[in-house]
Design a protein that fits this description.
InterPro entries: ATPase_NBD (IPR043129), Gcp-like_dom (IPR000905), KAE1/TsaD (IPR017861), Kae1_archaea_euk (IPR034680), Kinase-like_dom_sf (IPR011009), Peptidase_M22_CS (IPR017860), tRNA_threonyl_synthase/kinase (IPR009220). Keywords: Acyltransferase, ATP-binding, Cytoplasm, Iron, Kinase, Metal-binding, Multifunctional enzyme, Nucleotide-binding, Serine/threonine-protein kinase, Transferase, tRNA processing. It comes from Halorubrum halodurans. Its main location: cytoplasm. This is Probable bifunctional tRNA threonylcarbamoyladenosine biosynthesis protein. The chain is of the alpha+beta class. It has 3 domains: 155 residues, ATPase, nucleotide binding domain (Nucleotidyltransferase, domain 5, 2-Layer Sandwich); 167 residues, ATPase, nucleotide binding domain (Nucleotidyltransferase, domain 5, 2-Layer Sandwich); 257 residues, Transferase(Phosphotransferase) domain 1 (Transferase(Phosphotransferase), domain 1), CATH 1.10.510. 44% of the residues lie in helices and 17% in strands. It is built from 18 helices and 22 strands. Strands 3-2-1-4-5 form a 5-stranded mixed beta sheet, sandwiched between helices. Helix 5 packs across helix 7, helix 15 runs parallel beside helix 17 and helix 16 runs antiparallel to helix 17. 53% of the residues are buried. The structure holds threonylcarbamoyladenylate and fe (ii) ion.
Length: 608
């Protein structure tokens, strides 16, 4: 199978020939380079109409010289997302070429192509994918026939966020490489002599993130006379730490142990260094494709086009309309069949019941305390020590302030939420310099484990603390788990809905309400806890308020719901019933306005 691919979503007019038998790819590109500022859509479209036919002709000539007149088996093109006028030029070129050669046409989603090229090159079976491109930024994972969006930018794409600053400074597109060069002058020695860091907004919500604040803050810093190199350095440190953090959270949520990078910003050495370091620290494999496959190029379109064509996934000319807002999760993944979800099954990921002494989450290590730890506390309390460990990938000043702020927020909000009637652990101790909390042990496993249906196992915590009756209880709870896990999951998500409604009623958002941060089952009710009259095995706790904050904004409340639903739909089988139960639980105690806003958040295309 030999496929001619055409790309031209925004700035890069490109054609490529991919030979699937030999896995070789020839790419011919002609970038649009504005004289000043960013991409001008009209100029970009003009560039495409001149350059696309030229690059196509070059590749076609080369193909026919090597393979003869039947060189091409299919023509693949970028259908979207991208700038409408540019896409139309590409679409027209692809249709007429497919017609002239009398071969099938393949419509490729540009974003899926950005991630599939990494999977293709690395040979990873089921990675989490970080797309760091100009107009987009998202985390994707394969689940149930689609690439699900695990997390994404709430406003600008990562490249655009950086380019917004470089435009302000008067540098031309693309700004990314210029920021990288300027930042390198400050140095990336993050050891004892780490370069100073300007404080900039750092916004992550679960696996979603926002760049609008940081672009403006960088512009303001420039206007205030801060040296441009220092701003570039600080901008990179913040933006890439955010991307690395959400990637780690996605690995943790799904239990995946492979990460691939895609998109033009992926050419940045500092981003690759951070991702590689994060993956190494958690024992995950990392792959960043060759730069010629990271920036926009037709090679990735031809490679995915060949996989799609081989699967019979071609389109009729009359159905080949371009789509400027084409989202990656709209694409039926025809070229990977009957594969397991990126969300791994079973206990080995730590998503099931607790069977080890230490559990490593995305940002903290949680150690279950010894019996001796209970001194000075109610004598039936089992405790956990939760320590936010330093992350070697991020700048030490940023690392310190994130760990400190989140520890303080978690201690405060966990208690405030509890007073608002939300089931949360008791906070026994806070050690801010060590970023460590001592908390009541709650629940029996996390909701992620319950949704995945991981085999329950006897908890060994009770054995260690010498309470055989607890171990028996835990064993029986596990058995009951197996009986009707789905019903339990439905009851649990409904309870989460109620918890979030009460939390929001108290003017607090959780900030990261993923299925990992819900603990279910086990634990007797204590005197000061809300008694909902139900079975203790159905008890549902919210934990990890480190990203929480006070807010009365409907939008912030709706984001909490969006994050929770995202974590359910990306990992559970048949998530519809769960989402419905969750919203029902919320509706009973919460504001209708928030649910209405949730629909809006879901509906609106969030890329600009
Ligand atoms: C829809 C499509 O047109 C769009 N493509 C796109 O934006 O081109 P891409 O090649 O994936 O990414 C370009 C971005 O990548 C940035 N970039 C390139 N080299 C960089 C570097 N060394 N450091 C940081 N950013 C870099 C550029 O500044 C620019 O913002 C997309 O994928 O979102
Ligand atoms: Fe791109």
């Amino acid at each position: 199978m030999r496929v001619l691919g055409i790309e031209g979503t925004a700035w890069c007019a490109s054609a490529a020939l991919h030979d699937a038998e030999t896995d070789s790819t020839l790419i011919e590109s002609d970038p649009y380079e504005p004289d000043s500022g960013g991409i001008h859509p009209r100029e970009a479209a003009e560039h495409m109409s001149e350059a696309v036919p030229e690059v196509v002709e070059t590749v076609l000539d080369a193909a026919e010289a090597e393979y003869g007149p039947d060189a091409i088996d299919a023509v693949a093109f970028s259908r979207g997302p991208g700038l409408g006028p540019c896409l139309r030029t590409v679409g027209t070129a692809a249709r007429s070429l497919a017609g002239a050669l009398d071969v099938p046409l393949v419509g490729v989603n540009h974003m899926v192509a950005h991630l599939e090229i990494g999977r293709h090159e690395s040979g990873f079976s089921n990675p989490v994918c970080l797309n760091a491109s100009g107009a987009n930024a998202h985390l994707l994972g394969y689940h149930d026939g689609r690439y699900r969006v695990l997390g994404e930018t709430m406003d600008a794409g990562v490249g655009n966020a950086i380019d917004k600053f470089t435009r302000h400074v008067g540098w031309t597109h693309p700004g990314g490489p210029k920021v990288e060069a300027a930042a390198a002058e400050v140095g990336t020695d993050r050891g004892s002599g780490a370069a100073d860091l300007l404080e900039l907004p750092y916004v992550v919500k679960g696996m979603d993130f926002s760049f609008s604040g940081i672009s403006s803050a960088a512009n303001d810093a420039y206007d205030a006379g801060e040296p441009v190199e220092e701003i570039c350095f600080s901008l990179q440190e913040h933006v890439f730490a955010m991307l690395t953090e959400v990637s780690e959270r996605a690995l943790s949520l799904t239990g995946a142990d492979e990460l691939v990078l895609g998109g033009g910003v992926g050419q940045n050495d500092r981003l690759r260094e951070m991702l590689a370091e994060m993956c190494a620290a958690r024992g995950a494999a990392f792959h960043a494709p060759d730069p010629r496959y990271l920036r926009d190029n037709a090679g990735m379109i031809a490679v995915l086009g060949a996989k799609m064509a081989a699967a019979g996934d071609t389109i009729a000319i009359r159905e080949s309309r371009i789509d400027p807002n084409f989202r990656p999760d709209e694409v039926p993944v025809t070229w990977r069949d009957a594969e397991p979800s990126v969300a791994r099954l079973g206990d080995e990921t730590g998503g099931g019941s607790d069977h080890g002494r230490d559990r490593r989450g995305a940002e903290a290590v949680v150690e279950i305390g010894d019996a001796g730890d209970s001194i000075g506390r109610p004598d039936d309390a089992v405790v956990v020590h939760k320590r936010r460990v330093p992350k070697g990938y991020r700048h030490p000043a940023l690392d310190r302030s994130l760990r400190r702020d989140r520890t303080v927020a978690e201690a405060r909000l966990t208690s405030e939420a509890r007073r608002a009637g939300v089931s949360t652990p008791l906070v026994y101790d806070v050690d801010v310099p060590e970023a460590t909390l001592t908390l009541q042990y709650v629940g029996h496993r996390d909701l992620a484990g319950l949704l995945r249906g991981g085999e329950g196992r006897r908890s060994d915590r009770a054995d260690r603390s010498g309470r055989a009756d607890r171990a028996d209880q835990a064993g029986r709870a596990d058995q009951a788990d197996r009986v009707d896990r789905t019903d339990r999951a439905v009851r649990a998500v409904r309870a989460v809905g109620g918890h979030l409604a009460r939390l929001h009623g108290a003017g607090i958002v959780h900030g990261d309400p993923t299925t990992r941060n819900v603990r279910v089952g086990g634990g007797e009710r204590r005197g000061d806890e809300r008694d909902d009259g139900g079975d203790p095995r159905d008890r549902t706790f919210l934990i990890d308020f480190g990203l929480g904050y006070h807010t009365g904004h409907v939008e912030d409340h709706a984001m909490d719901l969006h994050v929770f639903e995202g974590s359910v739909t990306a990992t559970a089988s048949a998530p519809e019933r769960l989402v419905a139960a969750f919203e029902e639980g919320y509706r009973e105690e919460g504001e209708k306005e928030v649910l209405d806003r949730l629909r809006e958040v879901r509906r609106r295309g969030r890329y600009r």
